[in-house]
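User: Hey, quick favor. My workstation is busy. Could you predict this chain's structure for me?
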Amino acid sequence: MKNHSAKEYYSNLKKEQINCPVCDSSNYKVLANQDRYGMGLQSVICTNCSMIFINPRPTELEMNDFYKNHYRSFYESVEKPTSEYINNGPFIARANYVKNVLGNYLYNAKSVLDVGCAEGTLLLTIEKGFPNITTQGIEPSLSFGAYAKQQLKGEVFIGSYQEFIKKNNNRTFDVLTSTHVLEHILNPKEYLSELKKMMHNESVLYVEVPNIMDKRVNGLGAVHLGHVLSFDAFTLKRLLNDCGFEILEIFMDDLPAKTPAMAVICKVGNPINKKCSLSKKDIKNKESLFKERVLGENLNKSIISKIKKKLKLYVKSF
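Assistant: No problem, here it is.
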């Protein structure tokens, strides 16, 4: 889709103003009116918790139609997955990475659920490495879900995670994965609350998302309609803690993904009582770093150094 038609498509979507999806504050500052495909998205930063998100954004009905009818062909350039598509993408490398970091948990697991399993590469990798584990996938795309069904021993539910939970009440899993899904979710707190329903006391959840503050971010590549939320270490921890998750491990470097990413392994529990918050100065500096890395604006080197130091200290606090 060329930029002029992308902009026209987006301009015709019904949109709504929203509060911060993480802290529910109505206070925000506009960061940019630029995006990867020239649609004219407006990215804002919450001046309370520093979450970066699209606002205004298309309504839930419009976004559902976008994912059903446009997303795969628009961003992946394919309507249906093929072996060539999988081999040429980051999917196999990512699946091996996730399997390896989850190795100790998978060793003792009997069941795994991948929410947003796409073509099934992660679950296939787990099935090969841990043949005694029962796998389950959830995938909203009919064509990608059908492909996954052909590849896997385990079941694949084609539909939304809400529909799956309604049809599988009280079913729990030992390991759950949500890989590059959370950044697409309109209501992340509701999403995480639903995942908790499928976890028991010993379950772990692996969450991987793009990191908009990663040092490798260079340009507008991660800013597009598919990413209604743009996370970093601050906001991911804030969201997970607010939803009652305790972070066990964090991974910030060398994740194989199309865009620089980070991941955490967490469980349902009592998060650290220390409040996850930033000062107004920190938020202002984060705004500057976004403009420097994403928009290419020149930034004073001393400011960059201070922000990077703050980010490193924060990650160590996980």
